Amino acid sequence: MLRICHDHGFFRGEECPVCGDEGKFLMSSPELESLGRIMAGILRHFPDRFGLEMDEEGFVDIYKMVSAIKRKRGDKMRWLRPTHVIGLVETDPKGRYQAEDNHVRATYGHSIELSMSLPTDNIPDRLFFPARPDEVEELMRTGLHPDDRTMVHLSKTYLDAYEAGIHREGPDPVVLRIDAEGALNNGIIIQRAGKTVFTVEEIPPDFLGMSDDGDIESAKKELDERGSPYPTRPVKAPVDAPAPEENAPEHEDIDDLDEAPINGDEGDEDEDEGDDGGDDIPGPVESDG
After folding, report:
1. pLDDT in tens, 156-202
2. What gap in Å lies between CA 32 and CA 49, rounded to an integer?
3. Rounded to the nearest 5 degrees, what angle is found at the Cα of 61, between the Cα atoms of 60 and 64?
4. I need a labelling partner for 198 at 20 to 30 A (CA). Which of 13, 57, 126, 258 fits?
5. Where would I find the H helices in 19-123?
6. Model confidence over 45-71: pLDDT tens digits?
């Protein structure tokens, strides 16, 4: 559920994490998910289907996008305002989007060619990439190259990569380690695209290796800090028919929110991974390559 606190801004959940106030209702959880999926499609893959223009940096006008979504979806989203978009961006847990000067963009995951400028500072010395077991040998020989996206997507930690691998590749992905420091020292540009996602045009095989026990232990420590079991493959919810949220407020009192300021804070189409079962994190897989 998305709400807004008068003093502390947007938040997800039942009460403001700063002051405990319940704030003003904006969207139910199913509505938040539905809007996120629509925005991901527009901002990563097909702005033209909604009659929207996108600049070379991936930005589209927020007000025009809201109008286009309402035209397409009719009564289903008659309540939509720019404030809902900004709230989604600012509270997105993965930092998948960026809002700036009444425009919004996805920061990674694009299947359309763009010339995006993203931060290149504070890149970790090592990054990670999930792969299917049957493709590890080939990747170690040829390196990483874009597949269905225009950039290679790298993860900040072993656990981030493993979760992404479960989502994309299926159970038990193999997590490769990237020598990001070595790549940067050899002129390869790596960009920060989200809170845990980094993008690069390609990674040559010289900078690829297998994850080691230290990476595994770090992931286990992160899980212990979360108090969470290890994630398994999620069950996807319907895109266009989210279940109604019990006792969710109506949208009758939100017209005044059109005047809410649009900030430039970075917020990141991936679905959140589900949690289930297994206590162990798979160790590194030996490669013949």
Report:
1. 999 899 988 887 766 788 999 999 999 999 999 999 998 899 999 99
2. 21
3. 115
4. 13
5. 29-44, 62-73, 82-91
6. 999 999 999 999 999 999 999 999 999
Among 96, 99, 85, 110, which Cα is nearest to 31's?
A: 85
DSSP readout, 52-77?
----TTS-EEHHHHHHHHHHHHGGGG
Question: Of 149, 152, 139, which is closest to residue 197 (Cα–Cα)?
Answer: 152
Among candidate residues 43, 45, 23, the one with its CA nearest the CA of residue 35: 43
Name, in order, each residue with C-beta under 8 angstroms of 183's C-beta and a sequence gap of 6 or more: 190, 200, 203, 204, 207
**What is the Cα Rg of the chain in Å?**
20
Nearest to 264 by CA among 29, 16, 62, 113: 62
Biggest alpha carbon–alpha carbon distance for the chain: 62
Q: How far is CA 222 from the centre of its chain?
A: 19
Residues in the chain: 289
Enter the tokens of residue 91.
């509270």
> Please, what sign has the CA dihedral across residues 279, 284, 286, 289?
positive
Fold for domain 2-113+240-271? Arc Repressor Mutant, subunit A (1.10.10)
Q: Which residues contact 212 (CB under 8 A, 6 or more apart)?
A: 177, 284
State the distance between the two ends of the chain, measured CA to CA, in whole angstroms: 47
The CA-based dihedral angle spanning residues 163, 165, 166, 169, taken in that order and rounded to the nearest 10 degrees: 170
Residue in this structure with the two tokens 């992905």, named with its chain if needed: 173
Structure tokens belonging to residue 125: 């010395």
- pTM equals 0.69
